[in-house]
Design a protein that fits this description.
It is built from 16 helices and 16 strands. It is an alpha+beta fold. The protein has 2 domains: 310 residues, 2-Layer Sandwich (BirA Bifunctional Protein, domain 2); 88 residues, Rossmann fold, CATH 3.40.50.800. Strands 1-5-6-11-10-9-7-8 form an 8-stranded mixed beta sheet. Strands 13-12-14-15-16 form a 5-stranded mixed beta sheet, sandwiched between helices. A 3-stranded antiparallel beta sheet has the order 2-4-3.
Length: 423
């Protein structure tokens, strides 16, 4: 293999993996469309002024790929582009429900499951009431995962609930965000690691014990909500919001589990209400997340505008489903092979006739014997070969060979199409 330079944090996909991913995207997109989300298209490039807007991404600003001499950068997610888009197209009817599937870029250290170039599938609602909008985006994302066979667990919390709980447990207002950032590292450093981080912030041992006990609360959702209500008061708006989302999700009859997780902290720079994380049911590997970001659109428009969204990490999902091991390499059902002496015009005519009958076919375009053509067809895992020689051409027919079973028969083009369509 030649020593060709290749960037870190990106990758090529072989045809089977690319096809597998495309099939995932089709199913996900179909679900989003079934929920009535509209499709839009925004550039990969955004103004640095937009990307760096106050509170847009907070500490992640250092991850932007910049073209500093032009004042532009690559988008690092789809949400900032949506916020900018809505502000530039105020004629849009609200609530504005949109989905987008596309690539984003972040200049961060590559690691397993984390790339510098990656694909996300997002659904968002700008405008509308919080509880039904929150439930709708969550349900759409979960249905999308169900459509591709992912067993998942949806975890929920509320930023306002978390902030209020920290205050009640004695965390000074100036340290709440830092405390929540420490809690956000729970999956990486564990309970004791979080406790050490909290002590490092100058919190008393009693306060640290209260926090670690609170975020470790087990039991069903009712027990967790009861504990939270007892701590911050049942009349607190976050209690009504989170309880409302749980209730609003019930009619969707989602297949996965939906759990309140009082340790869930994410998007601390921009999420304002409900926060969500979707992980695999077995390992808990994160494959998506989102939340309510009522302040972000206003950063660009200068006026408040409620919004909520959730994103699915397509690369992580494809890796989870072993896309690289997919046996399917081609969209075509059959390979048209020609024996020496058959005319190329007849072979092309057969291929075109099959395509006209709805059968996708590939055909030989190289100077090679029939054995090599069939070896090629088997390597690409075609199920059928349509073999054409001088005798088949003279009869106006084709030899249809099932490359799995080895069975073959002399049939018309229409009969070949019918056999392949029915298999």
């Amino acid at each position: 293999m030649p020593n060709i330079p290749f960037p870190r944090g990106v990758r090529d996909l072989l045809p089977n993996a690319a096809l597998f991913r495309n099939e995932l995207l089709k199913r996900i997109e179909s679900v989003f469309q079934g929920f009535g989300f509209l499709t839009i298209d925004t550039p990969s490039l955004e103004s640095l002024e937009v990307l760096r807007a106050k509170n847009a991404i907070g500490e992640e600003a250092k991850l932007i790929y910049e073209f500093a001499d032009e004042g532009i950068g690559l988008r690092y997610d789809h949400t900032v582009s949506l916020a900018r888009y809505v502000c530039m197209h105020m004629e849009l009817q609200q609530p504005f429900k949109r989905y987008v599937i596309g690539k984003c870029w972040r200049r961060e250290e590559p690691q397993r499951g984390r790339y510098r170039e990656f694909m996300q599938a997002d659904v968002d609602i700008v405008g509308g009431d919080a509880v039904p909008s929150d439930a709708e985006v969550l349900a759409a994302a979960c249905r999308a995962l169900e459509s591709i066979g992912i067993e998942y667990r949806l975890r929920l919390n509320n930023r306002k609930l978390a902030d209020a709980a920290m205050q009640k447990m004695g965390v000074p207002a100036a340290k709440i965000t830092a405390v929540e950032r420490a809690i956000d590292k729970l999956d990486k450093v564990g309970d004791e690691g979080v406790a050490q981080l909290l002590r490092g912030l100058g919190l008393e041992n009693e306060t640290v014990d209260k926090i670690t006990s609170f975020i470790a609360t087990s039991g069903d959702n009712g027990a967790k909500m009861k504990l939270a209500a007892e701590l911050i008061g049942g009349e607190h708006e976050s209690i009504a919001e989170l309880s409302g989302v749980l209730e609003a999700l019930k009619p969707y009859s989602l297949h996965g589990t939906v759990d309140v997780d009082l340790s869930l902290m994410r998007g601390l720079d921009y999420y304002t209400g409900m926060v969500a994380e979707v992980g695999t049911a077995e390992s808990g590997l994160s494959i998506g997340g989102g939340g309510r970001y009522d302040g972000l659109v206003g950063v660009y428009c200068g006026k408040p505008m409620p919004a909520v969204g959730i994103s699915i990490g397509i690369d992580r999902v494809a890796d989870l489903l072993n896309a690289s091991s997919s046996p399917r390499y081609t969209y075509a059902s059959a390979f048209v092979a020609t024996i020496k002496g058959a005319s190329s015009s007849y072979a092309v005519g057969v291929a075109e006739a099959l395509r006209g009958l709805g059968i996708a076919v590939d055909m030989n375009v190289a100077s090679r014997n029939i054995s090599n053509q069939l070896a090629y067809a088997n390597a690409l895992k075609f199920k059928y070969a349509v073999i054409i020689g001088p005798s088949e051409e003279k009869l106006g027919r084709v030899k249809l060979r099932n490359l799995v079973s080895g069975e073959e028969s002399l049939v018309s083009v229409e009969e070949a199409a019918s056999a392949m369509a029915g298999s």
